[in-house]
Every structure is written in C-alpha cells, then in structure tokens.
From TrEMBL:
<dbReference type="GO" id="GO:0006302">
    <property type="term" value="P:double-strand break repair"/>
</dbReference>
<protein>
    <submittedName>
        <fullName>Uncharacterized protein</fullName>
    </submittedName>
</protein>
<keyword id="KW-0233">DNA recombination</keyword>
<dbReference type="GO" id="GO:0006310">
    <property type="term" value="P:DNA recombination"/>
</dbReference>
<dbReference type="InterPro" id="IPR012340">
    <property type="entry name" value="NA-bd_OB-fold"/>
</dbReference>
<dbReference type="InterPro" id="IPR003717">
    <property type="entry name" value="RecO"/>
</dbReference>
<dbReference type="GO" id="GO:0043590">
    <property type="term" value="C:bacterial nucleoid"/>
</dbReference>
<dbReference type="Pfam" id="PF02565">
    <property type="entry name" value="RecO_C"/>
</dbReference>
<dbReference type="InterPro" id="IPR037278">
    <property type="entry name" value="ARFGAP/RecO"/>
</dbReference>
C-alpha cells in the first residue's frame, strides 16, 4: 500500500487528486521496513465525474476490481489488464450500461488470463453464446454497437458468475445479479 502523508490538509499538494478511479501518474518512496510506501508526487491525468454520482456504476467497478485483485499478483505490472480496466472505467463514465460493460470486461479479462470458456459447449442459448463470442473477439468500439437483450445479459451473467467463482475464486456478486 501507499500512504499520502498530509493529504487531508487544506494546502496539501495531493488535495483533489486522490479519489477512486482517478487516472494519475505518481511517484512514491519505498519503505525498507514494510509494504506501506510514502506517496511523493501525483499528476492527475483524467477524472471520471459520472462515476461519482452513480452507485450502480461503482458497484460494477468494485466487482471488476475484486476480480482483477483476485486473479493477479500484487505489485506486478500488468499493462494489458490495466488497459482493460481503464477501458471499462471510460465506458462506464461515458454513460454505458454497467451490466453490459462489466460482462465485456469479465469475458476479455478471463481471456487475458487464459481462462476462456468454451462457448460452443456452454449451457447457453445460441444467441447468448454469439453475444459472448462477440464480446471475446471484438474491440471495445465495435462492442458499443452490440445490443444484447436483458435476458441474454442475465443468462451470460448467470454463466460467468459460477465460471469465475470456479476458476478465479469468489467475488461479491452485483446486487442485480444476486437472484
């Protein structure tokens, strides 16, 4: 972890720069005695204001973050996974549907980890399998044009939740998905 000493002071150089899902470049000083390092400098690159007002979007990001943390090793630079997460944050902040983009993230993340479901053998109807296969193969811009039905998204989520639980470990399900 990293600690930002004095960040809550009124004249702190970190004021307004540290928040959930802000994109920033930073430097820190490694601790010789613990895993708690000291933040030295922050340069804010991008904020995502829509995320501050929509708890459902934050819930989607929390689930994606938990999956990412569970499946990857701490303090390991993973550029591809970072880019996937950043794209998810941008899509959700741009007004995207949380359930849809979360499913896209999960499918693409599983593929990046070598955990690609065999969509042909998945117990899903042909339309939902086609949606999942498209999510796996298409880029994010093309996927913005994809319009799966709510039942397809529910069926896909119902497939992905136990698949992720089995291959990665438990992640807290979204309130919308729990039932």
């Amino acid at each position: 972890g990293t600690v930002a000493k004095g960040a809550r002071r009124a004249k702190s150089p970190f004021r307004g720069k540290l928040d959930l899902f802000h994109l920033a470049e930073f430097s820190f000083r490694r601790s010789r005695r613990s895993d708690l390092h000291t933040l030295c400098e922050v340069v804010l690159r991008e904020t995502f204001p829509q995320l501050r007002t929509d708890v459902d979007l934050l819930d989607s990001l929390a689930r994606a973050t938990k999956l990412l943390n569970r499946a990857t090793e701490e303090q390991t630079p993973l550029r591809a996974e970072f880019e996937l997460m950043l794209e998810l944050v941008r899509r959700l902040d741009g007004g995207g549907a949380g359930e849809f983009w979360l499913s896209v993230f999960e499918v693409k993340f599983l593929a990046s980890q070598g955990q690609v479901p065999d969509w042909a053998k998945a117990r899903l109807d042909a339309g939902t399998r086609a949606v999942a296969a498209k999510m796996a193969s298409a880029d994010w811009a093309d996927l913005a044009k994809l319009r799966p039905s709510q039942p397809q998204l529910r069926r896909l989520a119902g497939f992905l939740d136990p698949f992720i639980r089995h291959h990665v470990g438990p992640t807290k399900p979204l309130a919308k998905r729990a039932g």
